[in-house]
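Quick start: load a record and inspect it. Here is KASH domain-containing protein:
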Amino acid sequence: MLEKWESLTARVEETQMATALHRELTALRTEFKAAHDRLFSYEIALEQPHILDERINRITAELAALRDRKAAMLALNVQTHRLITDVGNSSSLIFTALKDGVADLYRVWDETFQKGNQQLCALQAVQQFSVRLAELQCALRRDKDTLAVLDVALQAGATSEVASSVRHVARLLSEKQDMNCQNGGTVLKDSTTEEVSGGVSAKFGDSPPISLTQEGGSLSDSGISDSGSEQELSERERRLAALRRLTRSLESQLAPGSEALVELLKRVEDAETELRDLQKQCRELIVRTAASVEARAAKRTSNQVHHFVDKRKKPVATEMSKEGAELVVTPVQAKSGATDGGDPDNEPGLPHSWVWRILRAALPFQLALVALFCAACLLEPHCCEATNTLNFSLTTQLRYVRGPPPV
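Running the structure step on this input writes:
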């Protein structure tokens, strides 16, 4: 009777311990289920940065709490295993349910933790997508403003500045950094040196030419080829390719046709459309700049040719007028019998410049002044000194200051 009582007491205690473990298992399982539901409730959408940060912080806190509860789950598993080992009768229904509850608890924890990681990765990808999309849109707005300023400058006639600036914008907007000129493409070359020095040729830079293909080329394709190396893409194309990679990574995490995925694809398509429009504007600006440079070079060449022809025409006209004068003077000289060898106009080697013309006009006036001075000196009265033989002597002479003394 005593043995039966002791056996019954032991079974009651084991049952109480199993019941307590079962209640603890149920509580943990309920807690993990609630965490799973909370993690699943976080929507993956393109929101404001502060909203995405808040959701990421909440999911991170949920995952940290799950890691902390893993220790309690491990302790419960140890207690269950010890209880079953001490009893030695694992075929009982209560112990079988206890073992199944522990296994189910581990499964729920794994699913919850995996779901939390997926949600966290998806939100981080969306956050990164939002940041990169904002950077690309900001860069495209800067490019648009730059093209507008360059357009105004080109209309104002600042061809050299526009040529050097549009080349930089073309490098940012072109599909590839170094790309050969395709059929129908517009190629920019260096114009800085030739444009400043006044040369005829027009070029736009020192590095290899950059080509923006026409609308029928590869720039009009809706997608970006993955076969080419990303290093060959320009800066704007690399940003767009990064957005496409993030979108493809989210396609595996989001349900097909979900609102978030549709919104992301629409944002990428809008950014690509804006980029293609800017590429078209840049291509048109390049064509206009090249035409303006060619027009200015042609005008400069025409001015140089006209200036050279005018300089050639002036000596020819002078020679023709001189020959006509010689033809007119020659009969007169032949009739009068006078020789005109001292005339400088008949000498072919003398220069016909404005200095020579001034000197030729001033020489008669100078000669006239000298003649007047000589005449004044010769007509000066000398009175009694005309009979003085010592007048031109170099010796000392005695003269009366106020005339001769009275006799």
